[in-house]
């Protein structure tokens, strides 16, 4: 028979998979001699067995639990639910990874009409005994039988009213007896059965409830989000009760060995005298700060401080400790690595290195890269946020916090007034307004929609795909459920969670300090992946360099074209009927485009700057309003109707798969020639001014090597011409995006013609899956909830599909050209999990939006450290 | 020094690659003792060298040509361009594969002011000599120097007018002398140089012109279309002249050993007395039928008949022979396998098997599968067609010929009136009108556009992507250049070439006869690939079975939904807000859908029928006109505005990559459940009536195995329910389309859940390349002309890209499940080149539209025969 139950004397902290985190730590604390109430753990394998047997507790596990209960009775000298000296236990879930949404705790299990009397006698405290009993019934009914808690609270409130007291402590033994009777009545009514009196039945029902809660919806969602395997199961810890509610020499509390909000090296905790654990959490009584214990129970306080120091040292990390004091004696109920803010994580990690407790590489592994976002952006004050209820929730497209008045068109955004721009979806025409807005909220679009990408680039708070909002653009209002928001009404966006609130919420600044700087510096000592940035403006470049970017991996040229200055010649170029007309328009653009690059090269200096030539379909640049078409038709001397027809003719059924990227350059090579000239003229100007430059020209959307060969020839020709006319040469690289599945499959051929590859994983993901980024939010939610996709492939690289294609591409390319430079410039370049994958693929660099550079640095360092550790 | 020039005495027909087709056959005929004028061949390797040396004739090749000229002079006893007994030569190009667009022939080379006199003396025919000279100047100027021919014709016409004769034969020696003088003047004016008098200079210039013509645009396009490697080069044949224009005992002609139009076993040819080769082709004089020679020159006729019989037997194929008779002596100038119509190809192949000349497998290889189209559809009478000039040209989307009055909307098509439907692009709403139309012409869309796919399915003539037409739908007219076509005007479409004509052109029927049937039967003895059809209606099924289809590889269910009967419940289903409403609508659809399948199963009997469940995005079914929306809003009891918003909300940015295929079924599993039930109910009904059935259910657009697992479970559940309620079970298969790149890459996982894969290469090509089938015609033309793509990947499978993904999929799937059934149901399933590729991949079957089934059968048999031959 398989062993499924383990006493705390067996095992240690390394048995996490088998005993769960809580069980392993209870075993560990028992092993090192700390005062832990005795007990045992029903292992995760019992949970797996439970599910394998179609949600049925086997006789084997039942009898092992029975045996361990007997041993526990024996060593405690008590009898489980007995009529004298009764043994009571707590039952708590404990998976290998801590997880919200699961059933938590049942205390005082073992009480019934008999044992409560014994407990009263034993403790000489009838009130305590009956209080414990009513607590048990309430807790068991709530967490095991799913009876709403408020039904019991109503009874207590009535009893308090009758008694004329305003807290439960004011009630007497008699009152609790009454409560117990009434509680049993509620139980019968709700379940159709009498309350379980047999302690062993109580125990098995609770163990089963824990197992069931492993698969409750919240737990499933949490596992999906965090990529936790659903088959590992949870353990259950059964521990003899100790009581913090046996009068003023008893108490209970929780403490962190350091401050979990700031990381300050000082015990941070709260406790309550004469209370059980739930009272601290429930918020009915206000707990005291842990320092108060120094006066109230100096010896226990000292002992607890020593335990804290010991546990932190033992676990080499900040601990989160639960304890109970029963009649002056300290018991430890749990210890675990404490959750902390990003600020605290970095502070604790850096301090512990300086205290000699951990190594630098260990410190780097201690910080969750994604959490760093909190430090870079304004955030809502957590205390204030707690008071608010969100109106609705979208995708957390770009972090930060924003409050402001709603505007429904980009034109309605006024400089500096801090509006929130709300749109069905943004388009390149909205850029100006987006730049001025405080925050952006879109109804459509996913994590890589236009709004999301642009907002992240700007470091601006954005929520996308908030499909529960009904937007009536004409009437300038939006409706969320029964709340109507008019233009000018105030809303708040939490870009970190995707939640939308009504009204304004106070904010606090991001927290970049010297500790942060030091930590970031350390990441540089470990990481091997280069970290570049996706930046289109001088401002982006400056931000990214401040955060440690080592170059530009993607400089999109199309955003530059939306300037009022440039859009008209761009439009002229597009609707030109002849090459001559087109060249006239391009000649107007050349000096404007050159100026864009002059600033960028100057800012980046010797760092490599990868410029992607024009990518989007041309109709994105064309006017759609009749007024603008009229203006263009006059400028170009074209009949209005003719021009309108031509604009219609450029529309596409599937623009994502249409005439864009290098396909434009095959049809109109003059465009890329102009851009190549502008890049080189800007580079030469800087070089003449003593600024070192490293331009890299990148051709987008190549799917067939002949496209690259053709376009490259034209681009090289244009550059040679600049070198001749300027009488100046400089080094540059010419490469391609890999963003079409066919490019991956034919990378051997493409590598012959390219000096570098940059994986455009946004498009590669779209095309490999056949998911339009603008349309897929309609079904990706359902895909996640039905467990068809474990995660959104636009957030983290889909390793099994897109990743296999990337691997194939890397292998084919390296076999052809060993020294080819490989990078990634999709949004995945800022996602820690994807960065680890790219590190494994052997890429040379990742590129991400400026505000993700620090995240990428940490993730890259972690990937390197993990792979070295093997 | 590399040998680059070969005399006809060396080599034979197997030296094709080195000597070109013409040269190899001249060598062969020389070898078997036939009367071939002596000469030599400048090999294809000389051409390659010419291009390697950057278009420069090396001293080596020049001196080898000189040596061979000297030998030729010696053996002929004549002097090249000499002042007595002058040697004249013809120069003709000859690549390994015959190819239009290349420089063809220069005759009488070696003439100059001296040798013409000698020729006059020698032949005692001054007129002949000067006529030959003026011909030479004219031909040399035209084909070598690119001087327009009409400039010379004007001179001849003036001379004839002066002389008062109406043909060139009326001119005398003196007139030709004048012509020569004037021709030289034109030459000087056009080239800036004197006419070349040195015969050797003339020769080298002509050889170089042949080499240059290898890379002229027409030749390049031809090679691209036919997949001929551009690096193989052409050879040049230099042959001593014989003269058919030395009076009434001389002549020239061409003959086929069998009738090239019908295949009839009877020599078919034409000749002219006192003429040079060009006269037969030029059409100035009307040639006589070859039988006339029996009277005019009985001995030569008999000799020629013997030669024809010998050559056909020697080459084992119908020969196309050029000959000249000089003063009663027969000379052979060329023999080659004769081009023939599909009808002739099949007749000749079948006859030759029955004559014991070739084997059946050889006969099958002799027929170009694509040409079979000609036999299955009405065609324009070639003689009539010759007289017409096309207005414009689009893509030959579906073969056949159609004439009729133009209608610009599907609603304007009246039953049986034979209109031509002209649209920007068709949509599923147009199906009814398309079915009634005589032919279909679209401005947008490629070879796999909606119009193309549907028309091929219907066996109806269609031209797509005819982008030179400006369509003004509002005004109901279209403009092609300066021709305006109004509604009701008559046009003609040639679906085989994509050409559009004005007015009506007489047609002739397709030609399916017993020879065709016999040939098709033979293919069945050889092919290993199964041939299925893509069929959605009973009519399609009947056509396909008649052509030899062995099952249905793709039965699309969406076309069924566009019936007036079905579209309304479909719409109700789509706009349903609740599952309950949706199930109500589906309940209405179930019996209607079942009826569709009852007929199909009955027609197909025991043959497998693969039904693809609903695939297109739902908004394709929704009304877009306010009237229809109004009607639906009343039926559904929904506010008009609310419904209109909901319809708007279903629109997608990139519908190709949107909410369609199995993604619909993940969101609304009820739809597939209804379809699965309908299929099984129909199958059971047939089975109960004694009809054997083999249903196969196919899930579209799977990209992730979990999609298939989820949908499969629901579909199987629905089927089990039918089996229970009907108390009847039957065998069925459940599989998936492979049409998303990610499905190829994860085929190992998907194979676990699928009994068969069917490659949907239309979508797979679209998505792998990232080319929308509706938008790519805008640039694919340019891609072909710029040699970026050798062929349209929607016509033939892109083996290097899409093919690699298919290979990966097949390998992964077979490794997981050795007996998995693999097929293809994209349009490529009817393309011979793609069929050969699928055969190589090891697929079990191909599926194509009914009218392509015979083509597929031949291609499949050829693939098998070729692979067996190795």
TrEMBL record, chains A, B:
Cofactor: Mg(2+)
Protein EC: 2.7.9.1
Keyword entries, A-Z: ATP-binding, Kinase, Magnesium, Metal-binding, Nucleotide-binding, Pyruvate, Transferase
Pyruvate phosphate dikinase AMP/ATP-binding domain segment(s): 58-292, 302-354
Binding-site positions, substrate: 556, 612, 739, 760-763
GO molecular function: ATP binding; kinase activity; metal ion binding; pyruvate, phosphate dikinase activity
Amino acids binding Mg(2+): 739, 763
Domain PEP-utilising enzyme C-terminal residues, every copy: 516-864
InterPro entries associated with the record: ATP_grasp_subdomain_1, PEP-util_enz_mobile_dom, PEP_util_AS, PEP_util_C, PEP_util_CS, Phosphohistidine_dom_sf, PPDK_AMP/ATP-bd, Pyruvate_phosphate_dikinase
Protein family per UniProt: Belongs to the PEP-utilizing enzyme family.
The protein's name in its UniProt record: Pyruvate, phosphate dikinase
Record organism: Propionigenium maris DSM 9537
Taxonomic path: Bacteria, Fusobacteriati, Fusobacteriota, Fusobacteriia, Fusobacteriales
């Amino acid at each position: 028979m398989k062993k499924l139950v383990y006493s705390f004397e067996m095992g240690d902290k390394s048995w996490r998979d088998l005993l769960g985190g809580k069980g392993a730590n209870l075993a560990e604390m028992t092993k090192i001699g700390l005062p832990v109430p005795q007990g045992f753990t029903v292992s995760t394998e019992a949970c797996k067995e439970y599910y394998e047997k179609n949600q049925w507790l086997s006789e084997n596990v039942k009898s092992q639990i029975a045996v361990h209960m007997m041993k526990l009775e024996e060593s405690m000298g008590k009898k489980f639910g007995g009529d004298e000296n009764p043994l009571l236990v707590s039952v708590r879930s404990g998976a290998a990874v801590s997880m919200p949404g699961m059933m938590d705790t049942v205390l005082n299990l073992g009480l019934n009409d008999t044992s409560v009397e014994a407990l009263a006698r034993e403790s000489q405290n009838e009130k305590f005994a009956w209080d414990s009993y009513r607590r048990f019934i309430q807790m068991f009914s709530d967490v095991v039988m799913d009876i709403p808690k408020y039904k019991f609270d109503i009874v207590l409130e009535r009893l308090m009213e009758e008694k004329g007291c305003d807290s439960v402590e004011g009630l007497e033994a008699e009152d609790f007896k009454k409560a117990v009777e009434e509680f049993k009545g509620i139980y019968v009514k709700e379940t159709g059965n009498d309350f379980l009196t047999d302690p062993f039945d109580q125990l098995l029902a609770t163990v089963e409830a824990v197992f069931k809660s492993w698969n409750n919806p919240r737990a499933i969602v949490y596992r999906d989000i965090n990529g936790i395997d659903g088959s590992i199961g949870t353990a259950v810890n059964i521990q003899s009760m100790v009581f913090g509610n046996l009068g003023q020499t008893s108490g209970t509390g929780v403490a962190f060995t350091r401050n979990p909000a700031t990381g300050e090296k000082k015990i941070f905790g709260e406790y309550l005298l004469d209370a059980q654990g739930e009272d601290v959490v429930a918020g009915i009584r206000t707990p005291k700060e842990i320092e108060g214990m120094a006066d109230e129970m100096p010896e226990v306080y000292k002992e607890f401080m020593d335990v804290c120091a010991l546990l932190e040292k033992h676990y080499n990390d900040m601990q989160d400790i639960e304890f109970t004091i029963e009649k002056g004696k300290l018991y430890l109920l749990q210890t675990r690595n404490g959750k902390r803010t990003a600020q605290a994580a970095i502070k604790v990690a850096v301090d512990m290195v300086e205290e000699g407790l951990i190594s630098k590489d260990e410190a780097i592994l201690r910080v969750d890269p994604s959490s760093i976002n909190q430090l870079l952006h304004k955030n809502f004050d957590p205390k204030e946020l707690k008071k608010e209820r969100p109106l609705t929730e979208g995708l957390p497209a770009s972090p930060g916090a924003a409050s402001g008045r709603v505007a429904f068109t980009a034109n309605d955004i006024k400089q500096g007034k801090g509006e929130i721009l709300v749109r069905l979806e943004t388009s390149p025409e909205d850029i100006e307004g987006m730049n001025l807005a405080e925050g952006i909220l879109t109804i459509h679009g996913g994590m890589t929609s236009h709004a999301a990408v642009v907002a992240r680039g700007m470091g601006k708070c954005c929520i996308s795909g908030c499909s529960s909002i009904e937007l009536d653009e004409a009437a300038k209002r939006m409706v969320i459920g029964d709340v109507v928001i008019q233009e000018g009404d105030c809303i708040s966006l939490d870009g970190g969670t995707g939640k939308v609130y009504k009204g304004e919420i106070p904010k606090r600044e991001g927290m970049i300090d010297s500790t942060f700087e030091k930590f970031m510096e350390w990441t540089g000592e470990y990481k091997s992946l280069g970290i570049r940035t996706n930046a289109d403006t001088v401002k982006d470049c400056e931000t990214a360099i401040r955060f440690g970017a080592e170059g530009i991996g993607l400089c999109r040229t199309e955003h530059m074209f939306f300037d009022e200055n440039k859009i008209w010649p761009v439009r002229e170029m597009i609707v030109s009927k002849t090459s001559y007309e087109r060249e006239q328009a391009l000649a107007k653009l050349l000096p404007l485009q050159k100026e864009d690059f002059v600033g960028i090269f100057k800012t980046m200096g010797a760092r490599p700057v990868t410029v992607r030539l024009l990518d989007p379909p041309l109709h994105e640049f064309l006017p759609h309003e009749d007024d603008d078409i009229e203006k263009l038709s006059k400028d170009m001397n074209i009949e209005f109707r003719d021009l309108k027809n031509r604009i219609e003719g450029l529309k596409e059924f599937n623009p994502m798969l249409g005439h864009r990227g290098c396909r434009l350059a095959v049809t109109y090579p003059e465009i890329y020639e102009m851009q190549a000239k502008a890049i080189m003229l800007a580079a030469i100007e800087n070089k003449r001014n003593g600024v070192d430059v490293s331009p890299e020209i990148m051709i987008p959307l190549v799917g067939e090597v002949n496209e690259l060969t053709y376009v490259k020839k034209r681009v090289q020709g244009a550059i040679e011409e600049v070198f001749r006319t300027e009488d100046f040469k400089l080094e540059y690289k010419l490469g391609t995006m890999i963003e079409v599945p066919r490019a991956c499959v034919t990378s051997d051929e493409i590598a012959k013609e390219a000096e570098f590859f940059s994986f455009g994983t946004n498009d590669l993901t779209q095309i490999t899956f056949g998911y339009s980024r603008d349309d897929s939010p309609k079904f990706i939610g359902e895909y996640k909830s039905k467990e068809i996709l474990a995660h959104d492939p636009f957030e983290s690289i889909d390793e099994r599909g897109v990743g296999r294609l990337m691997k194939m591409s890397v292998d084919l390319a390296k076999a052809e050209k060993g020294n080819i430079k490989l990078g990634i410039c999709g949004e995945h370049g800022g996602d820690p999990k994807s960065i680890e994958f790219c590190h494994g693929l052997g890429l040379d660099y990742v590129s991400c939006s400026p505000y993700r550079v620090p995240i990428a640095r940490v993730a890259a360092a972690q990937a390197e450290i993990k792979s070295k550790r093997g």
